[in-house]
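[agent] plan:
  1. take the single chain provided in the ticket
  2. run structure prediction with default settings
  3. attach structure tokens to the ticket
  4. add a short note for the reviewer (M.T.)
[agent] executing step 1
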Amino acid sequence: MGIFDVILMSFLVILALAVAFTRDLLAAAMIFSVYSLVMAITFVRLQAPDVALTEATVGAGITTILFVVAIIKTTRREEDE
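[agent] step 2 finished; step 3 output follows
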């Protein structure tokens, strides 16, 4: 396992925690998109290009678009201070 693989795995853990603790839904959707792209790179490194292509199109593409459209269609409630 090379240093690049360790960096990728560390970045995946950081992104997963960022998605879990982000309160803004749009920001969480964008972080999740980056997470999916890093997963696709990881699959390419593992010599699974078919899985990487599927992860990139479904995870980073279609899922992100669906999340953003759903967030836009819902109303935001402001917290009372």
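[agent] step 4 note for reviewer: Residues 3-73 form one domain.
[agent] ticket updated
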